[in-house]
Amino acid sequence: MSNTSIRDAIGNAVAYLKAHPDEARYTDSPATAILEDGLAVTVHGPQGLSIRTDMPKSIGGAEGSPSPGWLLRAAQASCLATLIAMRAAEQGQVPGRIEVVVDSESDDRGILGIDDSVPAGPLSSRARVRIGGVAAGQLQALIRWADRHCPVQDAVRRPVPCTVEAGN
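and the corresponding structure tokens:
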């Protein structure tokens, strides 16, 4: 999709939601995870989409697919890259290559239940962004805007109410 098409689509979505603010809030499509074999899981989503995860061999997985933690970092990286591209298109910019690298620091004592004072998830994460063909001032503005509006970054950064229920 061209930057013009992206800009037009975003403009149409913004205009529609400004005229129909009651339609801005919705329930996201569910992800259904099914344990397949060992620690391998297949997650099914809308329109027949699926993704498979597995865990490292060191904790009993087969390493046949990315881990859920890696998918979290992949979600952060791809969401930031997407939001940068969206904002650039809105502003009529045509950036070169957009590259976002996300890493994190973790402590396995949390996930393995060795020390309940250690969080099970990442202790911190870091994104490094490179955008070709954009002036330094515009680069920082694009990155700041994307970081503030990226739903995955927001979900990682902000305490999001989360419940787990048992079902039959």
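(Above: one complete record from the training split.) Residues 67-157 form a domain with the GMP Synthetase; Chain A, domain 3 fold (CATH 3.30.300.20).
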